[in-house]
Amino acid sequence: MTMTAGITPMGQGMDNIVWNILGQTYVPKQKSDNSFSWHATFPPGTFVPPHIHPTQDEFLYILEGEFDFLLDGQEARAAPGDLVRLPMGIPHGIFNKTDQTLKCLFWVSPARRLYDLFWAIHNLGPDANPADVVAVSAQHEVDFLPPPAEG
Which of 32, 89, 112, 145 is most deeply buried (CB count within 10 A of its CB)? Predict the structure, then answer.
């Protein structure tokens, strides 16, 4: 798929698509073979568990609020105007530990299978079994990490 020139207006996405992904709202903005972007809204307390994209670089541009990250085992925080770089193969998790709704723009390069993964996870419904999410994600080139050992 080749990218076409144009403008995706604020508040709109591709084909009026809106996904519920792990409690967040994702609105796809652009998709081609080389990249895929989406606007994300993270309600308070929502997160994306630590995972790896073995075949993609991922980026977040923070629009509203402060995100907490686990980046290759280190904690970090990003605020509006910050760009978060997540190279392929580096474990990362994304967390809203605040009482505010947070917003950012994500993109990955190349697009690979992430667009299809979001359709698959969205279709699992809001009460998806975590094991199902992990299994479907692995089939789409996203590998969730096991939870840390307690103790």
Answer: 112
